């Protein structure tokens, strides 16, 4: 086999590396598999609640377990791989997720479910920082596009999970989760391919003269960079705390308020997550053209009117509003992540790990806190409380122009 990097490429403008289409497709497809397996946990909540007689607080604890595990490990893994790249860590991470999936299928009690969720969280912690770095390396300079394609895979996987649960797991029971182990094996093969490309890229980079560092350094002073990171993390909190409440309890909300069936509620959840996947593809390319800040501003604050109306809508309007919210809000993350990477271009793994980890942590914390609130009040009250969170998008006004951004 040739020693050339195993990917299809598209020629870029002069001065840029080519877009590695094959690698970007493989890493996005792997993201689909990884997040699909995560979303199976979300789709299993009604089954676990009935089978193990769980409270809403315990349901939230499952989300907290796998997302907090990922949250704590991702920045550490990103920092580690900034110093010592690990091309073949990705298939190892997917193997951990596979083990969690199999344990989930045969979990006899709530404690085992938490252990399985922890294995899935560890797999995600290994996967996200390095895969985000590889998406950037394969971008050919189109960083927003590559992150959006990468995120599209993850959001598509998250959307497919409830659909598969409705079609396969609901009629066949908990153990049918193990059938999805084949998808994990495909993911391991894809990530082995990506790891080989990454290793060859590292060797080629080591053989070339080092670039002039000043050309890529953030043009903002360190204190400003720190302040901007804080603002971006507030935006991540707003987005993922809201999404945690909306997605973790959406099936219960629909069943309680509108008396729909479990399968119908899961199909509605699929619609919301599918809209989120579609919206993901918008934020990055638009940010490449007009700048990250307008995309961040519009995607988070822009959903506030729809979020405020949602708790008072009937079933038809609830369906439409959640589709709009999912589509608009999901465009934010790619723009936020690339904005942060442009501030700290030599800490791509650390930045990616920090933001993915914080997003996971806020999602897990949100699910747990809102689960306790639901136990003491109601799911309907939870939806009213979280409807104000997108208003935090106003802090985007404090963001300066990104160093590599074409617009404010």
TrEMBL record:
TM annotation in the entry: 54-73, 85-104, 110-128, 149-170, 176-195, 225-245, 265-283, 295-313, 319-339, 351-374, 380-399
InterPro entries, per the entry: MFS (IPR011701), MFS_dom (IPR020846), MFS_trans_sf (IPR036259)
Keywords: Membrane, Transmembrane, Transmembrane helix
Major facilitator superfamily (MFS) profile domain ranges (all copies): 23-405
The keyword tRNA processing belongs to this UniProt entry's keyword annotation: no
Keyword Transmembrane: yes
Protein name: MFS transporter
């Amino acid at each position: 086999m040739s020693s050339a990097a195993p990917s299809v490429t598209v020629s870029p403008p002069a001065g840029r590396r080519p877009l590695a289409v094959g690698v970007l497709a493989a890493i996005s497809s792997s993201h689909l598999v990884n997040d699909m397996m995560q979303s199976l946990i979300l789709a299993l909540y009604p089954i676990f609640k009935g089978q193990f007689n769980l409270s809403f607080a315990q349901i939230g604890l499952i989300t907290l377990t796998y997302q907090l595990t990922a949250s704590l490990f991702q920045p550490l893994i990103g920092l580690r791989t900034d110093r010592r790249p690990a091309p073949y860590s990705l298939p190892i991470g997917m193997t951990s997720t596979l083990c969690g999936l199999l344990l989930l299928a045969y979990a006899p009690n709530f404690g085992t479910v938490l252990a399985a969720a922890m294995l899935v969280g560890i797999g995600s912690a290994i996967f996200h920082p390095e895969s985000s770095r590889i998406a950037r390396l394969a971008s050919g300079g189109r960083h927003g596009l590559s992150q959006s394609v990468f995120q599209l895979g993850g959001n598509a996987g998250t959307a497919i999970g409830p659909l598969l649960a409705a079609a396969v797991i609901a009629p066949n029971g908990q153990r049918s989760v193990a059938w999805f182990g084949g998808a994990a094996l495909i993911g391991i093969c894809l990530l082995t391919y990506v790891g080989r490309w990454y290793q060859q890229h590292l060797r080629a980079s080591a053989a070339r003269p080092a670039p002039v560092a000043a050309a890529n350094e953030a043009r903002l002073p360190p204190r400003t960079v720190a302040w901007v990171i804080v603002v971006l993390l507030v935006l991540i909190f707003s987005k993922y705390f809201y999404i945690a409440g909306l997605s973790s309890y959406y099936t219960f909300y629909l069943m309680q308020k509108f008396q729909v069936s479990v399968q119908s509620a899961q199909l509605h959840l699929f619609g919301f997550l599918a809209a989120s996947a579609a919206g993901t593809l918008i934020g990055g390319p638009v940010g490449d053209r007009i700048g990250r800040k307008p995309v961040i501003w519009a995607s988070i604050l822009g959903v506030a009117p729809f979020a405020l109306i949602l708790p008072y809508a009937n079933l038809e309007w609830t369906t439409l509003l959640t589709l709009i919210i999912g589509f608009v809000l999901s465009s934010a993350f790619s723009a936020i992540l690339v904005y942060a990477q442009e501030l700290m271009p030599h800490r791509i793994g650390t930045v990616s790990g920090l933001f993915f980890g914080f997003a996971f942590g806020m999602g897990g914390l949100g699910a747990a806190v809102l689960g306790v609130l639901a136990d003491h009040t109601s799911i309907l009250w939870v939806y009213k409380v979280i409807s104000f969170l997108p208003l935090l998008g106003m802090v985007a006004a404090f963001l300066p122009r990104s160093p590599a951004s074409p617009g404010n």
